[in-house]
Specification:
The protein has 89 residues and is an alpha+beta fold. Helix content is 20%, strand content 30%. The two termini are 21 Å apart.
């Protein structure tokens, strides 16, 4: 998701606001952590990691990791609120 509309290029030269990763049974924790780190190093503000098996979700930023225990994934500036019930329905 990019703040400000559709990108002009096919390859991102500026970081998007948000990247979403959906875990598959083949994903390993070390591989996922590496991918999250790559996104955050590039400047992505939020990385959402969704686990369909457990129906849990996490928001990674450059300063923290938060599980969406209240059932909502969020960003700020711009404010985006996405209920997990909508994602996993």
């Amino acid at each position: 998701m990019l703040a400000g509309g559709k990108p002009a290029q096919q390859i991102f030269t500026r970081p998007p606001l948000l990247c979403i990763e959906i875990l598959s049974p083949e994903d390993t924790m070390s591989r996922m952590q590496e991918r999250i780190s790559d996104y955050l190093t590039f400047g992505v503000s939020h990385v959402w990691v969704l686990d369909p098996r457990t129906r849990r979700a996490y928001d990674y930023t450059s300063t923290s990791m938060r599980e969406a225990k209240d059932g909502v994934l969020r960003t700020e500036d711009p404010q985006i609120d996405v209920p997990l019930a909508e994602i996993f329905s």
